[in-house]
User: Fold these one by one.
Assistant:
Number 1:
Amino acid sequence: MGVKVPPDSGAAVARELAQGVREGKPSTQAEDLQNAGQVQILKFRGVYAWVLIGALVGQLIVADVVFILYACLGVGWNISQPIIGAWLGAAVVQVIGVVLVVTRSLFPGAQTLSPRA
Amino acid sequence: MVLGMGLLTRQDQATKDASDILGRLWANESGDLGIPIDVVRIARKLGIDVLDVEMDQGISGAIVKELNADPMIMLNQSDSSNRKRFTCAHEIGHYVRRSQEGSPDYAYLDRRGPLAAQGSDEGEVYANKFAASLLMPELEVKRRFKKDATVVALAVEFLVSEDAMNFRLQNLGLVSAGRSL
């Protein structure tokens, strides 16, 4: 752990800390908000990307499996064209909808930061 | 009474100095302040090195300025980002005050605890007031307060702790002491 603090020696301890940093005590540049935000966005973008891919793959599998089961067991492959169109169309719309919501709403830029920043 | 007047003047000076810094280093061309205020960026624009450093849990941060060296703000790396932001703003306050006095060499260590916020030391009173004014500019707080905002919502918007926002609202006379939104 770091330097212990005896009472009433604040300035001395501060100088000791600074000396330690100059001599190689582990330290990192403090992140400013913009960088912190970008790091966070990048981190979550990766997480969301994998979650999104997984969700979409799962959704497509479920939609296809249910469709095949319905077609095979339910109606003996005697499916009307409008039903096929509606089913597959709905699956595509859902996929596009999820992608749009995630990419447009979950990654806002840092517009709140001052332009002079 | 004289001491009281002196402290009051110092607090007013801290508010004015914070406002000057925001106008000079943060406001855009039309004078608008982007919220939240990025105090680390402001510190760097002032030529201060800002570092996250491992330190005792009893310390929130420190600033050291030595002869012929750039000033250095050290923040406790294990603190939350909001805590670090307040500490950084507080240390900038020390820097501004000592720069006005022309001091080439000084060091401050800021310890944690309730006494830190209620300190009677002139420099600490100034730095606390400066930090609050820098992170939560009066006009911006009042403007948002009118929109029926809660302490939590304001704290999130300004990226400060709820305690800090509550204290600021009380100091600005927007809520009475001991009562929060």
Number 2:
Amino acid sequence: MIYQVSPLVIRLGAIALGFLVATAYVPAVIGASIPTGYLVIMFLVPIFLLVSKIRITTSHLYGALFLFYVYLSLCWTFRLNIGFFIFLQTFALATVFCLGSAIEDLTDVFRGMALGLGVSALIGLYQLIDVNIIYNSNTMGYPSGLFINHNVFCETSIIMFVALIVLKMYWWVPVTIPGIIFVQSRAAMLALIVSAFAWLFNRNRIFALLLIPPFVLAITAYYFNYRFDLSSVDERFAIWNDTIRGLTLFGHGVGSYEITFPAFAKDLDINIVRPAQAHNDLLQLIYEFGIGVILLIPLAWNILKIKCDEKIILYCIGIISIFNFPMHIPITAFIACLVAGYITRFDVAYEPIRFSWRPILFTRFKV
Amino acid sequence: MSLFALVGDQFYLQGLKYNDIKYFKLAKKIFPFERAILQGDAEYYVKFGVIDLKAYEAIKEAYYYDPYIPRLLSYQMQYAFLMDDDNLGVQSFHKLKVMAPNMPLVKELIKRGAK
């Protein structure tokens, strides 16, 4: 059943949703061990779905199949209650995907998120002058806003920067600047470069390709001149090696990574560092769901084959997810699912496909 | 569910702020779906050196939710010996020997003749 609500209320609601997802976690005030952003998503997105009409596409069906596999994996997950909460978070992201496919315009939600990021940017500026209003895990002086981790702050800022440019919301771009300028996470910077390249490639392929060699040269020269610290890269490789060591056919089950990873940790000293994520979302998905990840391939293909600029936001998140875990951070996972859902509006609806198998089948029988 | 999570998380936060076991227990009762919340009371008992049956049970439960962490296993071993549960203590010691042979506690026990 779809309830009728005034468009103004929906618009205000979308802004409020975006704002709350971006600001819900205030460390040591609201939230200690649970990322409260997920709670906002779990609570508010279903309300939005009551007033939205979802157009089902094949992408929705593949997504539903994967979600069912995630649900099944509760049967063999390491600890059911912990797995159940992670399953709920995955379910919440699925509802965001549906919301993305149902809303007409992304700008209102992003307006809210930009406002929320503005709050973080403001707190970040205070943190720069050593006024720590909010807990900051970094001791090197990098600001982290409401995200505790400075890298997450930078990644979110860059994803938002790309999204705001793609959606032509240029007036909101300044809120992303403190997170980009004062932190400079390498993975996020790489994501920004790739996104810029994808944007340029869509407009002028030859010019974009010509830019690659001088750019690679510039990066190499920069590395040899400044020798930026690569110790975190070694740590990533250690985590990935240990994660690969633990891969199984059907996966360890939803929400099992953090608990079961130490059993396979050989390269990484678990007494010093205890990763809750694999720092590579695809690898973690394979670790937890094994061959179930295959169900995501047609979904990804369906989304990536569509030609639209919004895809650049997903490229940006995709690059970050190679080195970090944006699909486990509420705001970035929210953006990824919302945009992926939004892109499916350009996909073929499920209905015609369902009714077209009949004539095809009967034609075959005739032959 | 999200409401329960929020309230449980708030109790956990209060527990961390005021170092009061009742908050940790409440958090665990309201929202037993998150690892840190599930282990909150055990961490409290270890931090303040509380040695009783309740603490022992909490530590066993914390270990159940995180069985590959040597630190928790060593707590379980120590509490088992303190509570005269020698079977579990010896069992934990053997596991710990394999899991973390370089742990100072394990080295010391071996030096003292533990097998």
Number 3:
Amino acid sequence: MLIVLASCYDEAARFWVENWTDGDVTLLTPEDLSKSGWRHYLGSLQDSTAVIRDQVISVEQITGVLTRLPCVFEQELLSIVETDRPYVAAEMTAFLGSWLADLSCPILNKPTPICLMGTNWRPQQWIYAASQVGMSVETHHQYISLKTEPKQAQIPSERVSVTVIGDRYIGKVDPILGNQAKKLAEFAGVELLVVHYNRPEADAHFLSADFWPDLKSSEITTAILEYFSEM
Amino acid sequence: MLTLLWGLPGDSPLYTVYQELNYLGFPTVFLDQREIAHIEISLSVGSTIAGEICTPNFKIDLNQVTGVYLRPYESRRLPIVVEAGSNSRIWQHAAAVDDALLSWVEMTSALVLNRPSAMASNNSKPYQLQKIRQAGFLVPDTLVTTDSDAVHKFWKQHGSVIYKSISSTRSKVSRLSPEHHKRLANVAWCPTQFQQYIPGQDYRVHVVGEAVFACAIASTADDYRYPGDTTDYPQLKSDILPLEIEQRCRQLASTLKLPLAGIDLRKTDDGEWYCFEVNPSPGYTFYQQETHQPISLAIAQLLTQQQPQTLGKVNSIIG
């Protein structure tokens, strides 16, 4: 059973799970953590259980997890008393961080203490890391002062994306850019990464990186399933 | 060579190190968060990193900074910012200052006590406990659950069980008692952490680089930080750990990438050492005042002795 851990508002995740007929793919949302049956015995997977589709299952039945949730947001804990939501959201996030880290199945991506989806860097950190792996970058300048109005972030008029999944990449770009994207993912210690460039040619600039693959692309969802089946 | 301290002057651990650095005569600047409205930052990040911090009291080149000790509060929670409201210009400014500095401390080659990404392991206590166990310490049996039947079984198995928060939200460690029976069904709403109760002698160990300061704590309370009355008030005294445990503490701090760490240990009557938690931003002055251990001096010396690290080392840290 493949689990997609996502927000209840993540329509792309829901669309994929509901329309995928070739395999056992199930959505897990924070609301499912407010159901009796979760047992996370630290370091003892054989005794640990999860609640999936309202059924209590052994965590050993889980064959992979795709995480699309950086943390649990209080806004989706509607069944929790409003004043308790911030605390419960923090507790659920902390629980998921430990639960995911303890699983033995492949996870895209393994959680870090800062983010359930993997290495959560700020834009400046991604730029610096990109330059370290040999990508062409444009220097990111900031001047922060109450005396001057902040500049609005410039949205590039054109961008192309490369999705790295394990040891392969998907994207219509020069192979040099594809291989650089794989290097950046390796540098960041993640198996799933979406890298954005300003154009598809080999001399393109790195723009940004994130963990949000396009789940409406069958090429990407197929690659994700292949990643889990090959691991 | 310059040390940067970031936080509030009223923060005892931070200000005590500031005094030590001044006493040592080491160039030091204190970035006072109360000056948020007057803080100006320029930061340029590409294949290199460059920047400046400017306040009414100083202007520094970030590339001159070789040591950073940070204990900031969220600037958006400063009274002047809260009063202005979340739509105000100063609120945006405070958020931007925090974001720029927090990104810079993750990338700089200076020694940082401690990088936020490393401190975050404390955001999930069971996650951190997995790392503690991997470092060779015994850890208490732990169950995080929404299932009251599982709690009853765990309780019966261990006889005595405590519960505490999973996240970094500070909570009092409490022991389960018969009065909790009726309330246990409430765990269905949110995963809750239970641990085997380990009786024994508490120790707080501060690791500062290679230096280790152990403090034995005598208290009858389940959580010595929250004494029930004056008879429970903890008695602290400086102590020396067995060499093997001392080395394990250094190793644990290193594994967690925390040059400064406050490690909570308990020694059982059988001589076994359990580790419960690692505090990545320890309020060490509470212990220093009672034991007179020179922890603040060690922190100041660590900040001043550190040379800029090589790029390879930095990369391994930000990775």
